[in-house]
Amino acid sequence: MSGKRGTRLTPDQRREQLVGIGLEMLADRALDELSTDEVARRAGISRGLLFHYFDSKRDFYRAVVRAECDRFTAATEPDAGLEPVAWMRAFIAGFVSYVLEHRQVYLALVRGAAGSHPAVADLVDGTRATIARRVRDGQRRLGLPQAPRLEVATRAWMAFAEEAAITWQMAEHGTEEELCAFIEAGHVSLLGLLDRPQTLAPR
């Protein structure tokens, strides 16, 4: 999203451009390594002008992370009119598609040090909470009753889904659709253990 020097943009367009450049740069570096000098250079403006649109480097970091978190939550929000099973599958498909397409940025923000970065930790935590609520919403839509181990199973499945999406290699493991089916099967299996947890067979 690099601009040319002298390009006239509205303030909102310029902010969007600068945030977009920041998101592009996060694909190969940590949040702390996001240089506002380089962002300004790519946009064709001075570093001082960048801080005309953002109060501080912290403010810029938050704008970048907020944009990515908004993109993530939008990608994982199914159509409210879908039937329960279709709704849950749409959620899984949106999650998988997003992580596969934005893997490095996802790692940098959600899985990396940015998740505990003092400037943005609240944004990342809020996004995780939103995704957790969606999972619980999907379970309610499916008619699952509350169970003592449901919260534990939900968190375990979210960790499983995240790891599967991050490490999945198409050439070795199969297609995106197969990954979605694998993650769905993990959800079904965990839910099946709520009432009667299985143990390893005796040696």
Automatic annotation (TrEMBL):
Entry-linked Pfam families: TetR_C_46 (PF21943), TetR_N (PF00440)
Gene3D superfamilies reported for this sequence: Tetracycline Repressor, domain 2 (1.10.357.10)
Where the record annotates domain HTH tetR-type, the positions are 12-72
For this protein, the record's PROSITE patterns field holds: HTH_TETR_2
- What keywords appear on the UniProt entry? DNA-binding, Transcription, Transcription regulation
DNA-binding annotation, residue ranges on this chain: 35-54
Q: Which InterPro entries match?
A: DesT_TetR_C, Homeodomain-like_sf, HTH-type_TetR-like_transc_reg, HTH_TetR
What is the protein's given name?
Answer: TetR/AcrR family transcriptional regulator
Q: Does the keyword Lipoprotein apply?
A: no
* Top-level taxon of origin: Bacteria
